[in-house]
Structures are given as structure tokens and as C-alpha cells.
Amino acid sequence: MIELKNCTMTNSSNIGKDNNGTEELITTFVAPLLETKPILSIIYISILSVAFLIGTVGNTLTIIISSISKNVNKVGREFLINLALADLCVSGFADPMCIVGVVKGQRWFSSRVWFCELISSLCLTACFCAFLNLTLVSFNRYIYVCKNRLYYVLFKTKVCIVLCLVTWVAAFLFQFPNFIGWGDHTFDEKNHQCIWDRTKSYSYTLFVSIALIGSPLLFMTVAYILIFWRIFQTKVNVYSYSIDDPDRLKKAWKETAKSSRTLFILFVVFVVCWTPYTTVISLDVADDLPMEVHIMVTLVAHLHSSSTFVVYMISNRPYRRAAFRLLCRPTKGYRTGMLTGSTSTATTTTSDASTKSQDKKVVHTICK
Q1: Residue 285: which residues within 8 A CB-CB, separation 6 or more?
Q2: What Gene3D superfamilies does the database record attribute to this sequence (predicted)?
């Protein structure tokens, strides 16, 4: 007679005999990372805690500002809101659960299989949804810049909303194979968190790395190159009237870089965050790489959900102003008026120079 003990979520086990000679399956769990590697754990928890705070606050602000403001994120507004919502699921829910995994360990989740599966499936769905939205954002910007006549035909508000809903449905379907045996959800020993099982099926791992991460990356690369080239050509045409100016091409290049700055930074951040993770899961077929490698590349991938807010704050002046106004002036009347660009009677009487001066103070100072 064989007695099974704590077999759920098992990664290793030994068969032994009790005092009566009965065989039993003794399950062993991976100790919490906080106990085995406290320094690494403290670094990991600190970084992820900051990412949780920035991502939760930042993505919430992005949703509010993009929904209310008429002057921020005019192009592809619906996709950017949907992207912020997907990122909020990762930064606001999955990131804290990663910290729980490091502190509590595998044994804690072994009696909460449903919760571990919920974390894994929601995180993966949100990540796939973010990839799809980034692809739509790049396509949206390409049409707006390069095929402007088609923009208002293809991207009507109702169409954009439907596309946003489709991204969530498609993202869930892409991760659904984990429920039917092609992949799986598990507590990963090397990541110390509930996540999809990258070792269950190598074909599904390749599907994730190539089709769901690599394809959006390739599409965005092509789209942004075309956008950059289009802007550059436009600037060259503008400066072509200054034939006697030897620096006209240099000026055109600088203007192009300035116009494309936010797009370029978003693209670079995506590459930096997800390329290491994609490379590691694709090449580590035998799961031989050290735990430190897996946990760090996964950490960097998770940081992507908190990065968009930082990029907007650095490179998008209208967004930065709206964010400071929203944080510094919580009263409803001020917030609504400033975000939407509407002005009160008192504001109307203020000179343009005074308004610009106040804007600069808002941008360059943090709420006194």
C-alpha cells in the first residue's frame, strides 16, 4: 500500500518506509529563497516593491489622464489605456505575488493550487495582451504618420474599443493551452514564483518566445523604422528650402529624433526587458542554467509593466504636466479643468506668459 503525502505541486520526491514497513512518497519542497539566499532575496524584493509602487500608481494615472485629457495621447488613446490596464494587472497583482513566492516558498502554494494557477494564468494573459497592444500601437502610429488618409477610416473609436476587447480574448486563448496539457501552470523552482511551466513542452515555449514575443518585436521594428524614415523625409523637405545651409540634413535628423523620441524609447525598453527572457527560455532546453539567471531575466521582464509610466514622464511633456497637476491639485474642479484644457473665468484673464510660467513650475518642481 502506497500513501501519498502532499503530492500536489511536487518537484522532487523520495520513496521511504515508515515504522510499520508501509511505503510512502515523501515530498520535498524548495525552501523559500529568503532563507537560502537572503541577500539576493532582499535585492529582488526591493526592486520588485519599487516596480509595484511605480507600476500601480503610474498605470492608474495613465488610465485616468488618457481618459480625461484631450491633449495627451491623442493618437491610439484606446490602445494606450488598454496597455496600461494590462500592465496594471502585472504590476499590481503579479508582482506582489512574486514577492510572496520568494518569502513563503513552494510549500505555501502547494496547498493553494487554484491560487497559484490563477496568478500564472492572469500574469501570462496580461503579458500577451500587452504584447498585442504594443503591436496595435505601432501599427496605429504607422498608419497615422505614413498613411494618414486611412487613419480615421480604420481607427474609429468603436473599432478601437472592439480591437481592445479582442486583444484580451486572444491573449487568453494564447495561454489556454496551459489548461489542456500543451503547457502547464506551476511554481517554478528557479523563478520562485507561480508562472507557466516553461519545461512542460518545448514546442509551446518556442511558440511563446517566437510567435508571441518575437513577432511583435519584429513588427514594431519594421513599423518604427518606416515611421522614422517618413518623419525624416518630411523634415528634409522642410529644410530643403535652405539650400545654402550646410547643416540642414543634421537639423532634419535632430528634429526627426525629437519627434520620434517617445516611440523609440518605448521600443528600446521592450527590447531590453524581454530579449533576455526570450533568449533564456528558448536556449535552456535542459533547464541547466543557474537559478540566479532565471530569476533575474524574469524580474527584468516584469519591470516592463512599470516602465511605460516612467517613459511618459521623461519624454512626454503634456503627460508630465497632466500628471503633476493631477497629483498636486486633487480638487475636482481644478483637476478636470486643467486636464481637459478648459479654463475658468479667472484663468481666462491670466496672460499667456503667466500660464507658461506656471506650467514650467509644475513640470520642474514636485508638489511643495
Answers
A1: 202
A2: Rhodopsin 7-helix transmembrane proteins
- Residue 90 and residue 22 in one domain: no
Residues 129 and 154 in one domain: yes
d(CA 207, CA 128): 12
Nearest CA to 186 among 11, 6, 36?
A: 11
β partners of residue 3:
24
Query: Could you tell me which of 328, 330, 325, 357 has the C-alpha nearest to residue 340?
Result: 325
For the chain, the C-alpha Rg in angstroms (whole number) is 25
Phi and psi of 245, rounded to 5°?
A: -90, 110
> What pLDDT was estimated at residue 354?
47
Same domain, 113 and 207: yes
Report if residue 341 sits inside a domain: no
Same domain for 89 and 11: no
What pLDDT digit, counting tens, does each position of 265-301 carry?
888 999 999 999 999 999 998 899 999 999 999 999 9
pTM of the model: 0.80
Low-confidence residues of the chain: pLDDT under 50? 1-16, 25, 331-368
CATH number of the domain bearing residue 74: 1.20.1070.10
User: Three cell numbers at 255?
Assistant: 528634429
351 located within any domain? no
Task: Note down the domain range covering 3.
Answer: 1-30
pLDDT given for residue 58 in this prediction: 94
Written as one letter, the residue type at 174 is: F
Contact 56, 91 (CB under 8 A): yes
Would 209 be classed as within a structural domain? yes
Rounded Cα distance between 116 and 78, Å, is 31
Strand partners, 194: 187
3-state secondary structure of 17: strand
